[in-house]
């Protein structure tokens, strides 16, 4: 009998692996609805849905290996990173999904969220004030009008699977919706700045690199406290805190 592997588990959701089947347990059925609908609409390889019995969604493992992992050097080829960029472009060029997406925030709302989170990071002595201030200043670049695209919303590097230079699957679509295309590119390259040019080459469109880098600051500032409170380590080498330090 296959062993049960806990892939990720925290107070909001859990993912288990049993052989070649992943079981996603989530009490927020709206989030699962988004995942199921996004995978049906996305013009890129996605996992096969095996069955759904709330609160559990069963999906098949995708072939290949992750493009990389945050905090570790990627062993994927430049061609694989470019292929990832091309896949993201296909997604962004697809018709918009009928739902807005959980990460859809206007500039004023995002600015207020950033200001509140930065104040907490300093007040609770989680991060040095100068580090927070510098990255909050960089983050201003994302506070501009943008055209909504069909975005993944949580396109972490280990959510993209490859076999050689081919994209074999993109997983974890619960944050998908109408969003800022550059947020996806930033999430994909977070902690892997050395591969940004390859991703942009595959993406094949004019990309404002300053905004991508600003999204690195935004995602890291908003993520550090949540990650620490949910059993993750944003202070690990190459992770969110190091990303913030690299902006100094």
Task: Quickly name the level 1 CATH class.
Answer: Alpha Beta
Helix residue percentage? 40-55%
Strand order of the largest sheet: 1-2-3-5-4
Main β-sheet: number of strands, strand sense, barrel status?
Answer: 5 strands, antiparallel
The fraction of residues assigned to DSSP E strands is 15-25%
Number of helices: 8
Task: Report the principal-axis shape.
Answer: globular
Query: Which superfamily, in CATH terms, is the homologous superfamily?
Result: Aminoglycoside phosphotransferase (APH), C-terminal lobe
Unreliable runs: none
> What's the total number of strands?
10
Question: What is the averaged pLDDT score?
Answer: 95
What is the CATH architecture annotation?
Answer: Alpha-Beta Complex
Q: How many domain units?
A: 1
H and E order: EEEHEEEHHHEEEEHHHH
What structural category characterises the helix and strand content?
A: alpha+beta
Span of the ends, CA to CA: 51 Å
The CATH topology: Aminoglycoside 3'-phosphotransferase, Chain: A, domain 2
Work out the radius of gyration: 18 Å
Give an overview in words.
With 248 residues, the chain is of the alpha+beta class. The radius of gyration is 18 Å and the shape is globular. The strands form three sheets. A five-stranded antiparallel sheet has the order 1-2-3-5-4. A three-stranded antiparallel sheet has the order 6-8-9, with helices on one face. The chain has eight helices and ten strands. It has a single domain, classed as Aminoglycoside phosphotransferase (APH), C-terminal lobe (Aminoglycoside 3'-phosphotransferase, Chain: A, domain 2, Alpha-Beta Complex). The protein starts with a strand and ends with a helix.
